[in-house]
Structure formats: structure tokens, C-alpha cells
Amino acid sequence: MDIRRIAAFSDQEQGGNPAGVVIGDALPEPSVMQSVAAEVGFSETAFAAPQGEGWRVRYFSPESEVPFCGHATIALGAALAMDNGDGVYPLHLNAAEISVEGRRNGAGFSAALQSPPTQSRPAEEALLAEAKALFGLADADLDARIPVAVAEAGATHLVLALTNRALLAAMDYDFKAGQDFMNRHGLVTVSLVYAETPTLFHARNAFASGGVFEDPATGAAAAALAGYLRDLDWPHGGAIDIVQGEDMGMLSRLNAQIPAEKGASIRVSGAARLMDKS
Questions:
Q1: What is the pLDDT of residue 233?
Q2: Do 168 and 162 contact (CB within 8 A), yes or no?
Q3: Confidence at residue 219, expressed as pLDDT on a 0 to 100 scale
Q4: First-to-last CA distance in the chain?
Q5: Residue in 87, 66, 82, 78 with CA at minimum distance from that of residue 183
Q6: Which phi and psi (to 5°) does residue 72 adopt?
Q7: Residue 211: other Cβ atoms inside 10 A
Q8: What CA–CA distance (Å, rounded) separates 117 from 45?
Q9: Which has the least CB within 10 A, 30, 75, 210, 248?
Q10: Angstrom distance (rounded) from CA 155 to CA 153
Q11: 189-197 and 156-162: which strand pairing?
């Protein structure tokens, strides 16, 4: 099996979030995909096979199938550009129809995905209380301009906006308790963010639901955050930049383009670099 390892949302030739990419004539059985994803050990591996005019895609973390993964989609876009040239590729997910544009940039690649539709809702008090206890946060630590919310763009995330960068740097939680919390509430990640400016965010994403303590770049969460900011009428000016992975030593850069229509797809883009091939 041809497994490519590609770091998505990289900072030039460094950082980014590694993803596995497997492209074949047909998708393997789910048990095989799960086994391969566990062996690769990255937060997600994308599996793709031709279907109609596009590609059938499924995503697996080391412990479970994930409905949508942004960074693995960016990695897949780079792999499709590598194999088939620059272009926009329709992708058929389990519950959504999206696309990814892949382009070669010299020795590297860039890609941009169109997310599934977005939606958000305020977090219930019980959910908020559990989240604060898990991460050791007080009400004064939370940015009242961006109330805690459940945000979706193909996958479900809890958004916790913090009042300063130091709180983000200090993020910690009990892994088993976090895994239980996320699984009980149907959360793929908990996205902790800090707004340095209205258009520049710093983020850390706890991903215990997928068997990973923290994700260094999360395209799905970026799309969900962008959709939520649109719902809030946040002064985003049509786009936000997100810096993630810095506290892990894996600096990643994501850009999210935000059209005016509420619920509309978010365009999330970034660079990608080929790590190796096995």
C-alpha cells in the first residue's frame, strides 16, 4: 500500500500537521483503513479512490473514523496535484460534498479546501462547566466577546476563546478525562483560541477523541471557527489567519476566507510539504 506522509499548513519547509494519504483504485475495508491509520500514527490519514468525476474520501484517526478532517484534505490536495496536476478536485465524503484545490509551488505544494456548510450554537451551561473544569479555566479567563460555543463545519468542535496568549500557552488537561468528555458530547476537538487582533488568531486543539493529545493544525476547526465568527458578526473583514502548533514546536499557518452568507462554505488554505513515502 502506497502511504504518503504530507505535512499540511506548513510554515514554508517546516512545521505543519502530518497526515497520511492513501490513494488507490478502491477504498480498503474500514477495518484495514483503521489499522493503517493506527500504524501511521498521525492524527488522521485520508483514504481516497476515484468515484465519478471526483474522489471518494474517508478519514481515520488512530482510534476512530472522523467525518471530516481539514489538514488531511489539504494533504490529499497536494497528493492529487502531485499525481494529476494543478486543479480543483471534487470530494465525496460520508455526509458531505466538498472540493480541494491542489497546486505545485516550486518544490512544494499549496492547497485550499471548501468546507461543508457551517453552523454554531451557544454552549449549554453544563457543557461549559465541564469544559472549564477540564482545562482549569475560570470565567475571567474567557473572552466575553466570543462566547463559548459548539461550532460545526463537517465536524463538531467546542470553541473556548481565551483572554490572553499566556493562558493558551499553558493549556493542559487530563487525557482520559478529555477523551471521555469529547466522546460523550460528540466533539471531535476542543478548540482553544486567542484573538490577537480581529483577523489574527492563535489556536490549540485538544483531540483526545481521536487518540491524540493535541493537533498542530486543524483545518476543520478553522472552518468551524470562521463560520462561528460570521454568525457573531465579528469584524473579520472577510478572512482570518490562524497560527497553530507553535507551542508544540510545529508552527502551522492557516487562512480562512469567510463569505458573507451565513452557513456558506469556508475556504481554508495553506502550504503543504512532502515528508516521505512508504
A1: 97
A2: yes
A3: 95
A4: 8
A5: 66
A6: -70, -30
A7: 16
A8: 22
A9: 30
A10: 5
A11: parallel
What is the phi/psi pair of residue 132, to 5°? -65, -40
Spell out the domains of the chain, with CATH numbers in brackets. 4-114+272-277 (3.10.310.10), 119-264 (3.10.310.10)
C-beta neighbour count of 96 within 10 angstroms: 17
Do residues 154 and 116 touch, judged by C-beta distance below 8 A?
yes
Q: What is the spatial distance between Cα 181 and Cα 208, in angstroms, rounded to a whole number? A: 9
Strand 54-60 vs strand 65-66: parallel, antiparallel, or unpaired?
A: antiparallel
107 confidence band (pLDDT: 50, 70, 90): confident
Alpha helices in the chain (DSSP H): 30-40, 70-84, 125-135, 165-169, 175-185, 219-231
In the DSSP assignment, the letter for residue 199 is T
Over the Cα atoms of the chain, what is R_g?
17
Looking at the DSSP bridge assignments, the partners of residue 83 are none
Instruction: For residue 17, report the phi and psi dihedrals to the nearest 5 degrees.
Output: -110, 115
φ, ψ for residue 245, nearest 5 deg? 80, -5
Cβ–Cβ < 8 Å for 271, 9: yes
Q: To the nearest 10°, the Cα dihedral for 176, 182, 183, 189?
A: -110
Three-state SS at 28 = coil
Tens of pLDDT, residue by residue over 166-191, are 999 999 999 999 999 999 999 999 99
d(CA 254, CA 74): 11
| Among the listed residues 127, 38, 54, 126, the one whose alpha carbon sits nearest the alpha carbon of residue 87 | 54
Give the residue among 232, 170, 246 at the shortest CA–CA distance from 201: 246
- Any idea which of 4-13, 132-141, 227-236 has the lowest mean pLDDT? 4-13
Residues 163/143, Cβ–Cβ less than 8 Å:
yes
